[in-house]
Each structure stands twice: as structure tokens, then as C-alpha cells.
Amino acid sequence: MTEKTRESDVAFIKALAELLTENDLGEIRVKRKYGEDDGIDVRVSRAGAMAAQHFVAAPAQAAPAPAAAAPAAAPISPESEGDPAAHPGAVTSPMVGTIYLQAEPGAAPFVKVGDSVSEGDTVLIIEAMKTMNQIPAPRAGTVKRILVEDGAPVEFGAPLMIIE
């Protein structure tokens, strides 16, 4: 590995660390190939934050979002539901990224509280590493709560909505 490549790798890793902090993420992993037999596999994480999020902060992280969604889902309060991630109808995030509730800015949202959905219907999008990932409804039912805000960062396993 040349000194120039090493310096660019260090700059790349520093940029990833800044992205981690700016977007309040727990972890970023990137594989970079320079050639057939040359490349790097980088994982940047906030070790203390990740350990806390997996065991303690994941439910607390979801708490601010229900309060923001409370006007749309007024009949159900966060206190009466307990931990949204433990709800049997919870739809959880399959990845780290940014949530979008509609296909493009200004468009109608994919779903609203009270909407009926069929299994496989797109309920939201998660942007991860500049890729838009459509998140399908895992089951048919009615959207009871939306626990995230449009444009908000989300961690792996965080509850996104409740479908009953």
C-alpha cells in the first residue's frame, strides 16, 4: 500500500467518523475496492453508544417520536402502550438510515394512521448510503401508530410503526 493510498484511507475514515457524528448514527460500515486484490473494509462505530442502544436506549430512543406523532394517533398514548418495540404489531427498522414517509418531497405519505395496508405494501422508505430502500408491510392490517418523523435518523431494530 502506498503512502498516498494510506493518507486517502485515513481521510476517508475521518469523513466516515464525521458522518457518524453529524447523523447521530451508531455505526457505519463501508467496503472499498481499489483493484482485484486491493481494498479496505472499514467499520466505524461508537462502541459505548452501540452497546447502550442495543440493551438500554432503543426503547428510550423511540419515546420522542410517539410524542411527535401523538396528534395523528391521539387515542393511544405512549404510557398505555409501554415499549412500542415489544408490541406484536410493531414494524421495526431492518437497517440504519434516514426515514422518509413519502416517495418524494411534497408527495402524499405512503400511509397515515387509520389506513388499511396489505402485506407487502410499501409503508415507508429508509435511505441508507444513498440507496432508497422500500420497507414493505410485514402483515395486513390497520396502521395504528407511526412512531417516526419524516427525515429522522433511525437505528437498526428501532420501532417504526404499529400495524394491527
TrEMBL record:
Pathway: Lipid metabolism; fatty acid biosynthesis
Renumbered residue ranges of the record's region Disordered: 67-89
Presence of the UniProt keyword Lipid biosynthesis in the record: yes
Residue ranges constituting the Lipoyl-binding domain according to the UniProt record: 88-164
Pfam families attached to this UniProt entry: Biotin_lipoyl
Tree of life domain: Bacteria
Coiled coil: none
Keywords of this entry: Biotin, Fatty acid biosynthesis, Fatty acid metabolism, Lipid biosynthesis, Lipid metabolism
SUPFAM superfamilies in alphabetical order: Single hybrid motif (SSF51230)
Keyword Cell division: no
PROSITE patterns from the UniProt entry: BIOTIN, BIOTINYL_LIPOYL
InterPro entries given in the database record: AcCoA_biotinCC, Biotin_BS, Biotin_Carboxyl_Carrier/Decarb, Biotin_lipoyl, Single_hybrid_motif
Functional note: This protein is a component of the acetyl coenzyme A carboxylase complex; first, biotin carboxylase catalyzes the carboxylation of the carrier protein and then the transcarboxylase transfers the carboxyl group to form malonyl-CoA.
Entry-linked NCBIfam families: BCCP
Protein name: Biotin carboxyl carrier protein of acetyl-CoA carboxylase
Encoding gene, per UniProt annotation: accB
